[in-house]
Design goal:
The complex is a heterodimer of chains A (469) and B (318).
Chain A lengths: L1 H5 L10 H29 L12 H33 L6 H23 L13 H24 L8 H26 L3 H36 L6 H14 L15 H12 L2 H14 L5 H5 L1 H23 L2 H7 L3 H31 L6 H34 L4 H39 L17
Helix pairs in contact in A: 2-3, 2-4, 2-14, 2-16, 3-4, 3-5, 3-7, 3-14, 4-5, 5-6, 6-7, 7-8, 7-12, 7-14, 8-10, 10-12, 12-14, 14-15, 15-16
Chain B lengths: L3 H30 L5 H10 L19 E7 L6 E11 L7 H4 L8 H7 L12 E10 L2 E8 H4 L4 H8 L4 E2 L1 H10 L16 H4 L28 H4 L3 H9 L29 H12 L17 H12 L2
Antiparallel strand pairs in B: 1-2, 1-5, 2-3, 3-4
The chains are: A mainly alpha (469), B alpha+beta (318).
Amino acid sequence: MLLKYLFAKNDEIPPGSATIFFGFSSIFWFVVGTGLGSFNAAKLAFPDWVTGTEMFAFGHMRQVHVLAVILGWISMAFGMTMMYMTPALGNTKLWSEKLGLWTVFLWNIGLSLGLLLLWLGFTSGREYNDLIWPIDLVVICGVLLPLGINVWMTIAHRKTQGIYITNWFFGACIFMVIVVFVVGQSPELFGLTGLTEAYLTFWFAHNVLGLWITPVAAAIAYYTIPKLTGNPLYSHRIAHLHFWAIIAFYSTPASHHLMSAPLPEWLKSFASVEGVLILIPAIAFVANILLTMKGKWSMFVENVETKFSITGVLLAIPLNMQGGFQQTRAINWYVHGTGWIVAHAHLALLGMSSFLEAAAVYFGLQQMLRRKLYSLTLANLHYWFFLVGFCIYWISMTIAGLIQGAGKIYEVPYIDVVVAEHPYMIARWVGGTMVFTGNVVWLYNMWMTAREGTLVPAGKYAHELAYER
Amino acid sequence: MGFRQYKFGAAGVGLMLGFSMCITLFGPSNDFRSGVSTWVGLDKQLSLGRVIGFSYEDPTVSGDGKPVTVILDKDPKTGEAIDPPQRFYVYKAGTKFSPGVNHPELLGPGVEDLSLSIGKIKAADVSSGAVFTVSKGEFNGEEIDYIENVTATRGWSPEETLRAAGDENSRYVGKGKTIYISEGCWWCHTLLPEQTQDWQVFGAPPFLGDFNGEMPTAFGSDRKAPDLLHVAARNSSREWMEMHFFNPRLVQPNSIMPRFDYLWGKTDADGNTIDYAKWRAEYMAYLNGESIYPPEVPKPAPDSEVRALIDWILTSLK
């Protein structure tokens, strides 16, 4: 199907094809990514489980989990939402459906190749930037740039006067993530070394999160919540406060990841202050969305897409409260390098971001397939497995992190900390496995939706139809 | 289109982002440039070579094309005693030099001047190889360390230096750190004692000049296991390391570290094939209380990956 359209004329490709291929790819990578996560968690709880082979060693699989989730699930879900939200908000068609299909095709190939090489041990040894530089160039030129061109051109060819906030975010965030990738590769491409390399590694890691994963996820919520509830966004102006605050502050706090490295002190203090300022866009975002829900709160219970979306928005509250304050020196001293940070990272990626994207993928796939979701029961099962699994993970890792922090401050022999953490490592594995199970259910549910979902009549939204099963 | 405020908006994004990036990218680069290499920094870059991780000389990230660190107690040319024994970094013909030799400005003021004038590092040539060492000199009344190209100053050739050292005095440090990177050890271990609290247990935090020319630094961010920057100062037993890598539960029953027995390869030091299945069966018997002692850990072959890894740990992480 995909291959047929790759060489078809642009006009002959049915609108929404890129969305659908992006959507299913993203769910597939979510299953792979969380499956790897569950496998890795099992290794931390039971170190002799699958042992003695290089390929299945923890150090070979951990980074594959991280990048499968970031570049496979989250970024492809972003691609998917851009493919249908950008034209919908401009009251126009996607600039090039064919380019969109090529993007998803190259993306899957490049990512599979990159992850395979990473798994085999071909690495640059730089955290979150582990892909070797030829693969990074594929990501920049084969994935991000075509995606950006499609989005920018669609916005330029819009038939509306204004640009809605979601498209402001999409357009700017793709531009920024391309800049971040190019600068992030500079140590490998131009041989930068030493502290410069260390700083740029975390500059990249921070900005991929701060300028791509969290703002684009928020931008998605600005679309899905008004669309699902039928309420207009509470305030477009507050949304712009969110947008401009991200642009102005949030490319700067990178060095708060390296508070105990010998970086210049002014840089650490500057990063710490800028890091607290995340509370401005965060409060603007959460308040805006929750006020948009006015009069429609019953949908949080009754409508599964709204349920996912609002859960994501609510998780943004602890996320930004933690994020804003844990990077100040006083708290960083206690939690740096512990499981607390692991819990926080999962709160951002698996909690806030993934819930918002799941809502958008649910909504967009039904919209583009013109089919109603196959089973509400399975969707609810997915939701509860996802939420409960995530909460088990988050809470257990937070506790483990506090234990590690105490062990660090009171200089307890390290092995005693490992012993004390053991029950939480088992809980983390249980939680991760629940999320993985929920995602397998989701993939099945979506596949059945494509095959057997009730057809949605023209002029109707899928969520306006009653479930038949 | 046609609405001017969107052009202002797009320009605004560019300006604000550009300003933020100037502060966070150009600002610190001045501070980094003023870092003067310490002995640790020079030792690290000379023993690790140009770059660790995926590169032209080592595309499979297995430790090819790295220099060898040798510890000598007498001059291979004159036979004169060197007391205390000193480290020399042997770059065989074709091995790429470390970043500081190619770009002396990375070494920092003073170190750069002495390395160029007395150290003669510009005389080194990749096609014929070179031997380097870290020497002490005086610059503006202060004693500093600089890189000396021993091939130019004392006429040592890489081959005769390696021959004089022999395998027992050679340390495969560059290869060892490559294994640390490719096996993902840094996902659990950090190389960065924290400035605020790690002094007692994990030792002193690193200094500004300890990293010049290192790539990648692999600080690590997630400490599921002890910090390793000074691990060899706490434990310098090669035998303990071998047991710990083969199966960490042999020396630390509660450890969650994976087994790295596959780093031994196919044969042990005597050339005998290692029978992993038999070893594991005997180990299980020991765990079940059927035997009193665990099976012996095979002695690693001189060219095995684990030997290089332990070389790096015991030489660099002090």
